[in-house]
């Protein structure tokens, strides 16, 4: 199945499996990807966690024995957001390292949750409530540590109260969406329109409000335009503008038509 269609099928039928979803994203960059190879690697890591060692055994295995770490040298390397590369290179960004920890933990009975703290991504052990900074080598955080990390990451001063509301649980679907958003930013910054195209197409498979779809469609048209695929870009925009079932207002439809005309103007 086409990687975009496969990802859309996963996110369209309830809460997706995190490992399968992350590998479906990676298939956008590597269409010939064999997901079974990387599922087997997660299984291998889980089998190496000492029996009944709980969270401490999981963290020791991943960050001390296997050497997973945050990529502080090249944070915006797109490989940091692609699970096979993270498993192979043992380095990534907070959210992909969290995927590894959550999935290995799930296999050994250690339930971890993604935590979308502003400015940084953590995991939380549901049994103890402890938070873990996987980007910092699996460091355990108490409430004071979480607050210090929040203020360092966001620049918030003491006028901003730190509460548990700033440590929200993030479900699997939300994690996958954030992974795509990270890739969108990286590929846009690096002017890689071919890669940006598949990321945007995956994002558009996720149901959402019109105000999010219009910028994605406009950016997708731009990525196609950078590949000199102006008629295709215009067709996508016009199709969305003329769709009677699309929850768009007149202003949004006009904006899409205007962008379509600007794409076709490149043919003159």
Structure description:
This protein folds into two domains: 168 residues, no CATH class; 60 residues, no CATH class. The model has no long low-confidence stretch (mean pLDDT 95). It is globular. The chain contains twelve helices and seven strands. Helices cover 58% and strands 7% of the residues. The strands form two sheets. It has a five-stranded antiparallel sheet with strand order 6-5-4-3-7. Strands 1-2 form a two-stranded parallel ribbon. A hairpin with a 5-residue loop joins strand 4 and strand 5. With 268 residues, it is an alpha+beta fold.
Low-confidence stretches: none
In total, how many domains does the architecture comprise?
A: 2
Q: What is the gyration radius calculated from CA atoms?
A: 20 Å
Could you give the order of the helices and strands? Answer: HHHHEHEHEEEEHEHHHHH
Mean pLDDT: 95
How many DSSP-defined strands?
A: 7
Helix content: 55-70%
- Helix count? 12
Q: Mind summarizing the main beta sheet?
A: 5 strands, antiparallel
Q: What fraction of the residues are assigned to beta strands by DSSP?
A: 5-15%
